[in-house]
């Protein structure tokens, strides 16, 4: 436990308030608009970086990435339901909340150490390459029934927002800790003018304020916080250009796996969880801690609410717990150059060179053959070897797929070509593959050529 590690996971928390056992209805826009009912409050989160840290007398569990808090609610004065949301870049959970997630009874995936489904959370790794075809079919079916059908509207709204021009708050963490319970904390570097609407009250969240750095500095060094910032920005960039089929939302994870694999590899898989262990493992960094922390009595709960405690007084308790002024730097827009990552050894520098993209000049697109599948594929091999831009390769893949369809209605790689075309055609212009991506895609194209040579596809004379 302790180090930050990259771990690409997809998390859905069906109800934030149910997890917290704390049904604060909260306010909307201003504190005079009282909420009468919360109909739905899921969290959708694409995690990419995690850590478990002991801070004072508690373990804190950190997940960083691209997330979305969504709430559907009604106001006290009646009328139709209202929707609101907030983009978030992190979840910070104290041990008592995390342990509630990992000790709940499973509703699926009982025998898998890296897949979790219960009433409080649904978690799967983005990359399912280590699963058999049978396992992937079962996972896809479970995802469809439990996540993609019931939460389709939420996921589509999230992706629409992530892929829009709206400013993404790179330091915006949703917290459930002793001191910051049911609160969103923002980075002090986010300009308060641009975050004016974000800071307005939202149902289901007690408080939104600045102070993310204050909490992060309790657990991380400046170098760590710089790495968190840069990885979150890269994840946002990846998901903001990700293509997927809205009718088949499993393509969202499938395409994310391809897009993230080279720059954001999954950590090594730990051994299977022994049957006698009491806790499932959402995070790799938390897997060693077998102690179960009970829900503290001084944290307001659903049970107290049912006994008749006035919700206003409960909110006042929580706000008093969390009111600690932040004495930080002046507000300014995020600039990744403000964070320095320190020195690197020769091995780290080599890995960085492998993963670094290079800018390339624009080149005229090659002519794509129309009569011979092998010749079509060989054009792509040449484009990769000659460092054409990724977006140009994507455009040519679309043309090639259409040309191949005129030759034959079915090939074993037609669907995969379309998948890569969707991903690459939305890439930033004038950027070529890095060394690792180039090697990997050459292997893929060479495999297509091998299949084409032994399949004896027809030719157009």
What are its keywords?
alpha+beta, 14 helices, 461 residues, two-stranded antiparallel sheet, 36% helix, 14 strands, 20% strand, Four Helix Bundle (Hemerythrin (Met), subunit A), 2 domains
Number of helices: 14
Total individual domains: 2
H and E string: EHEEEEEHEEEHHEEEHHHHHHEHHHEH
Helical residues, percent: 25-40%
Query: What integer is the average pLDDT?
Result: 80
Oligomeric state of this protein: single chain
Main pleated-sheet profile? 12 strands, mixed
Would you kindly provide a brief summary of this structure?
This protein is 36% helix and 20% strand.
Describe it.
There is one protein chain. The relative contact order is 0.13. The protein is built from 14 helices and 14 strands. The chain folds into 2 domains: 5-338, no CATH class; 358-455, Up-down Bundle (Four Helix Bundle (Hemerythrin (Met), subunit A)). The protein is an alpha+beta fold and 461 residues long. The strands form 2 sheets. Strands 1, 2, 3, 4, 5, 6, 7, 8, 9, 10, 11 and 12 form a 12-stranded mixed β-sheet that branches. The protein has a two-stranded antiparallel ribbon with strand order 13-14. Helix 11 (373-385) packs antiparallel against helix 14.
